[in-house]
Amino acid sequence: MRKKLGCLHAHYSNIDYLENALSSYDIELVHFVDPALMYRVASDENFKEEDAQNKVKEQLEWIAKCNVDAILITCTNYIALLPEDQLSLSVPIIKIDEPYFEQICNIQQPQKILFTNPATVEGTIKRLHQYAENHKKTLDVEVNVIPNTFQLIMKGLKKEYNHEVSKCLHKLLKDEQKVISVAQLSMVDASQQVENKTAKTIINPLNPLITIILKQFELEKKHLC
Known about the structure:
alpha/beta; Rossmann fold; 2 domains; three-stranded parallel β-sheet; 7 strands; 47% helix; 16% strand
């Protein structure tokens, strides 16, 4: 029976990554996109954290009623607002960052994590350190934001965005001895292009996420030739 995955996004740009990665599996993706919540959190000082948590709760309850088999949240800031103690959903929730965190936490060498969106850094790194603490892991991570790039993807300039991310990754792989990873779905295409050209591994949040989704639905990963 075909599985249905409800996906909650803060921006439309994440949709294609999941559709492409899961296109060969018997999974129907149902997308729910709300960029307004994070905009209001950042711009309206009268909109309190409790209000944002209530909105996230309302969204998840709505998605759960749409006959989905699981819910995926692709925005780290949404996850940070998740009111765990107030949720009583029978549908499992998959958080995009936790499979990525697990991979990061299993690496002993010094690491460098790249972002393009400065607004996601604090929430993501806070959750990463909390995850490491909960799993009794030690981290040696440095965080870098690639400047003046995120507005390109927000304007739909994906080619230009990928070019800037690729340029930065090439430079880092040449100059750095640290393990490199990208923290956002929007950076996956560029990182995979650089990986293919250099034969050097760049960790991204999509690969471990797909493994977890397939495990949730008891599907086996396909090996493409």
